[in-house]
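Lesson 9: reading folded outputs for more than one chain in a single document. The general rule is that every protein is listed as its sequence immediately followed by its structure tokens, and records are never interleaved. Here is the first one.
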Amino acid sequence: MSEPQNNIRPQIGVFDLGMIVVSLVIGIGIFRTPAIVAKQAGSEEIFFSAWVFGGIVSLVGALVFAEIGSRHHFPGGVYKLISTAFHPVYSFMINWVIVLTYGAGMAGVALIGSEYLNPLMPQSLQTSTGIQGTAVVTLLFFYTINMIGVKSGSRTQNLLSTLKILMMLTLCCGLFISQSEPVASTATLAIPKTNMFAAFGASLIAVFYTFGGYQQTLNFGGDIKDPVRNTPKGILLGIFLIVALYMAINYTYYKALGFEGLQNSKLIASDTARVLFGPTGEIFFSVAIFLSVIGFINATMMSLPRVYYAMADDRILPQIFKKVNSKTQVQEFALTFLVITSLLSLLMLDTFESIVNYVMSVDSIALASSAATIFVFRKKAGVSDLHQGFKIKGYPVLPALFVLFLIIIAINVIVTDPSSAIIGWALFLGGAPLYFLLQKLGK
């Protein structure tokens, strides 16, 4: 399959890409999932082991995608990679579910961010309707920002990502500068030895949800300046920052709240800020977390339209999804479609825990499939591989272990929460007949 005709002018550099990685990964997850992980783990040892293991595996994944992004760079990267390496039908089955889950996930993130912000607003807005209204306004605001242009969205992303990093560092430093005494660790739940592996496996579902998203940077292949050199640098810059921040902030949660407090907290960052800095600190960090949330929304609005672009290039979606404003470099129709579907999702969202399992049920297979393209492209390159960009050390062992582990996570989701997994897999399998229907309509 030939690469798509590219009507997009590259405007994203290494720092821009690194900040996009940070915001694609650090959404609301790290401010919510540690409590889920703590409940699933049941002990401090399993809790921290899951985060360390998740960080190591994510670093390996970042190295895999650094090579893939260095070798192949075009709009809608994830869709085109799987389509080129395997088959367009399989790629569509995966990516149309990703489009649905990420759109719904963006709406869910906006909703949770509003839950952090609305307690600081007038009493009349501290209702479910008020929270939903704040989420709607947030989505529409960043829709406007991104309609102005890709460079506008990128600059906004740099600012929001920098604020997010500074906020997390400040929260971590609170252990050393706070006048309050952090809560001592309380007794952990007893777990039978026979269940330790099950607890560890269940913990990893939420951990990998929190680490996920960096692969979506490949959707910016057509936007990156000198992608052979800059894609690996941007991905690795972002993932190293994320791993360091996650380890530091989880330790802060644990020291400030104690393990039992960590298990029972719904708004972990606010509770931690209240312990370390008092009521004023809680207010400050509630606003800061909302900024983190909108950074994820902005990054998603920049990323997903490029997937639509690739699908339209294969004539699976109408050509209007591929149309790019020559002046602003914005896919105006595609962006509008994404925002409308996200707003509609606000009416149908379930609990955050169900969203995690729903997304991870197919996302792990999508990530594994994207990573597995490295074997296909290396084989096609042959012994006389002319690629001069980044190459992962430890090939093929490290990429194979990464793919295998993702498959295990997908199976674990089915075992842990079959009802959420069934929805994702039903949509996945339904993608095959939908592909042929859309292809026929496209002709």
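And here is the second record, again sequence then tokens.
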Amino acid sequence: MTTIALGDTHGRTYWKHILEQEPKANKIVFIGDYFDTFEPISTDSQLANFLEILELKKQQPQRVVLLMGNHDFHYLPNAQETYSGYKHFLALLLQPYLQKAIDEQWLQICHVEPPFLFSHAGVSSTWCQNHHIGTNLNPLAFTLAINNLLHTNLKAFAFAMGPNHSPYGDDACQGPLWIRPKSLFKDAVPGYTQVVGHTQQAEMSISPKLTLIDTLGTAKTYLRIANGAMHEVPVPTI
């Protein structure tokens, strides 16, 4: 069993080269943040790239997993909050596609392949408790409970200022789109190796408790999990 996980996309097309290098991968997990690039990638190109990724999901629904990031969340019609990089013009173009992708369950918040739990930023015990999600549920029921909130309680994934008063999201009460590694490491739901993006790293950080993979824009690497072992792999030469 081989799973590959790609850090924050932000309009980049590296995924195409990665998939060419990984034709036998059983599962492909996009960790989210398809938009709001700080690189010279046009709004039209970002939207076109997302639609190509969405089409890949539709063609291979069991193989491809599309997770949502905070830079995707704030474009939802009912999100009612915006973060850095938000573009009103992109929102007008994007909202119909994004909402349909959620309604048809092409996009989700988290994905589990025991012992690995994938989400954009991570899942804390405090957030689960605040939203009445039992951390002792079996993995399928646990992730289903979280993903269902995308349809029943969208505000569960909004930015939530906590005791640290961190504008950066470094609080255990923050949800799977916002929590930062320091708070997540202290309060991660037990029993999983969490694989997350959201916080850019100079190079990938791999450990049995928390693996940080937002490196497409820095080290230009992605994560390969083969037979339970995690490896940092360079993006093919472009």
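What the second record shows: The chain has one domain: 2-234.
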